[in-house]
Amino acid sequence: MKYLIVGLGNIGSEYRDTRHNIGFMILDTLAEVSNISFTTERYGDVGRGRIKNKQVVLLKPSTYMNLSGNAVRYWKEKEGIDLDHILVLVDDIALSFGAVRIKPRGSDAGHNGLKNIALMLGTDAYPRLRFGVGNDFPRGCQVEYVLGQFTPEQRKDLPARIDVAVEAVKAFCLAGIANAMNMYNNK
Asked: Is pLDDT at 138 greater than 80 in this prediction?
């Protein structure tokens, strides 16, 4: 079985380590602990390897967040990956900082990356891991918040929270989505 793990984010140094790029950060950590390296290919940086006995394709789209669906659709088709073997890693302002929620499907909740993926795949029935970035911003300042840096306190706690997300991704591949949800949705 082959899995496509997609970390959402924006390319460019100005977006590095921002809340909106948490998908890239989780994927970078997963690649590091799994001894997988990325190469620049069509629509993004791609890494191929294994998590135990499961083949994985890791994707960091270079299409910018709002056009992520182009990259997801292309790599899903190119690698012949079933929809239920895709996991999209995304930031979520509706969750408190560091909370992890895995879902088999769902609305885009106003997230433009998820909206574009659903549009390009023709369905919202694809698994996703939402990583909480909190919502401590004044009304009307959401864009600045998600494109902003984590607070110093959050940066201190971020590596441990990313490690939990990485373990949740591994559980998704090795034990299935139901088990991964049971194990990680309340951590």
From this structure: no
Which tokens hold the place of 152? 């110093």
Identify the DSSP state of 150: P
pLDDT at position 182 is: 96
Per the structure, how many domains does the chain have?
1
- The residue segments making up the domain with residue 166 are 2-184
Do the Cβ atoms of 18 and 72 come closer than 8 Å?
no
DSSP secondary structure code for residue 32 in this structure: H
Confidence of residue 109 (pLDDT cuts 50, 70, 90): confident
Longest dimension (CA), the chain: 47
Tokens of 65: 């967040």
CATH number at residue 151: 3.40.50.1470
Query: Which residue reads 């971020």 in tokens?
Result: 158
**What average pLDDT is seen over the chain?**
94
Q: What are phi and psi of 118, to 5 degrees?
A: -60, -40
Tell me, what's the pLDDT at 142?
82
| Residue 20 appears among annotated catalytic residues | yes
- The catalytic position among 20, 111, 130, 161 is 20
Summarised one tens digit per residue, pLDDT across range 35-45 is: 999 999 999 99
- Are 24 and 162 in contact by the 8 Å Cβ rule? The answer is no
- Contact by Cβ (8 Å): 93, 135: yes
